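Human: I'm a chemist; would you kindly supply sequence and structure tokens for a protein?

Assistant:
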Amino acid sequence: MRREAEAESPLVRFLGHLGEERGLSPRTVAGYRRDVEAFRAYLGEDGPGWEAVTSQQVRGFVGHLHRRGLAARSIHRSLSALRTFFRFLIRERLVTANPAEQVAAPRMERSLPRVLAPEQASALMQRPEQGFEGVRDRALVELLYSCGLRVSEAAALDLTALDRRAGEVRALGKGRKTRIVPVGRKALEALDAYLPLRAERADAGETALFLTRRGRRMSVRAMQQRVRRLSGGAASPHTLRHSFASHLLESSGDLRAVQELLGHANLSTTQIYTHLDIQQLSAAYDRAHPRARRGSSESENES
């Protein structure tokens, strides 16, 4: 493929659009770049320009990824990146059609998220805390479970994001979208115990809600490590987010409310929790219904 001048490259303009207009994280933008560049490498140096790419070539790329042994999820991600890229090119009037739009990816088994049982979550929140880190970790897990925050959202929280009087927290989610989430009573109590200790530790000018023992903002990695350590490896911050969604949906049945609280752009993303709820109901049925489990003697009589 003829290489465009880097400054004028449609790919560079596309990446700028993702970061500046859509507000995607640098990590996400880098993923889009890898996927589009992988397709360009597949086409080769002498391949067609973007305007001449065909659906057949996109299908060939999907087959190429499959033969390389990539997981269906990774192939779906690459195909999604190409669709988004060509939509951008159409918007910029650089191409007239999207060759990736109708290309199917390999069937992907839908994996259900791992969640804690309500009693497991309760036991985790009741672990005894010791010293600054113990009180902070208790406040962290209570807030993650109470609000269903992503760990990146929790790490980005400033003191000003917490409205103690209203019992709310303002989270900055994907695409730089802000949402207001209610904070439960237990989480507020844990935060009340933590905040005076935080004030003693904070460096001058530090605005972060959650701090290390050295008075600096906790990183995403540090939060992940602390939650895993506190739970004995049974949970991660994302497990707490999944548990929040599953338990709330089970109690309320309000899928739209759960979508808003999680900050999902599409309801289809939230609907995975309905599948989880059905799975849990099926398990309860198998345990409790007198006709769900048949004894060996009944099986023999029917054979």
Q: What stands out?
A: The beta strands are 162-163, 168-172, 178-182. The chain has 14 helices and three strands. Residues 210 and 254 are 31 Å apart (CA to CA).
